[in-house]
Amino acid sequence: MREPLDPDMFDELCPSSLTPIRFGDKWAGMIIRCLEDGPRRFSELRVPLRRVTPKMLTQSLRGLERDGLVRRTVQAPQTHTDEVGPGGAGGRPPSGRIEYALTPLGRSLLGPMAVACAWADEHWEELLDARESAAGTAESARPAG
């Protein structure tokens, strides 16, 4: 059994949050990192990606699936002997577990992503200074009102 994902996996002060290199949409790189150690359910991905709305996480996963980086698998539902009728309790068929996993193509991004994170870690101070400078420039450019 694999370890649960760390809720603080993507701390705001993590170099991976500073890298200006994007893999897919805003959250794609973080999702790929979450799937690095094996398949995960949506609820497991939500733990370290708690700042991502469920709608946005779903859209990002669909984009990664469309691009061939992530595979969505519906596991066969587990039936219980105490279910009532063919549809189980309540007349609904039991639903399967949905898991997301990296494809070989998705796994091939892990190396380049590690290089980008190492670069961001090496240039941490410069990136922070540049962002602070840009934020100050944007503030001074706003008209007084």
Helix-strand blueprint:
Layout: H1 15-18, H2 28-34, E1 40-41, H3 42-46, H4 54-66, E2 70-74, E3 98-102, H5 104-107, H6 110-122, H7 124-141
Antiparallel strand pairs: 1-3, 2-3
Quickly describe the structure.
The protein is mainly α and 145 residues long.
Q: Just name the CATH architecture.
A: Orthogonal Bundle
Oligomer: single chain
Order of helices and strands: HHEHHEEHHH
Number of structural domains: 1
Number of helices: 7
Contiguous low-pLDDT stretches (5 residues minimum) are none
Mean pLDDT across every amino acid position: 81
CATH superfamily: Winged helix-like DNA-binding domain superfamily/Winged helix DNA-binding domain
Characterization of the model:
The protein has 145 residues and is mainly alpha-helical. It is built from seven helices and three strands. The protein starts with 14 loop residues before the first helix and ends with a helix.
Characteristics:
145 residues, mainly alpha, Arc Repressor Mutant, subunit A, 3 strands, 44% helix, DNA binding, DNA-binding, HTH_HxlR, transcription, WH_DNA-bd_sf
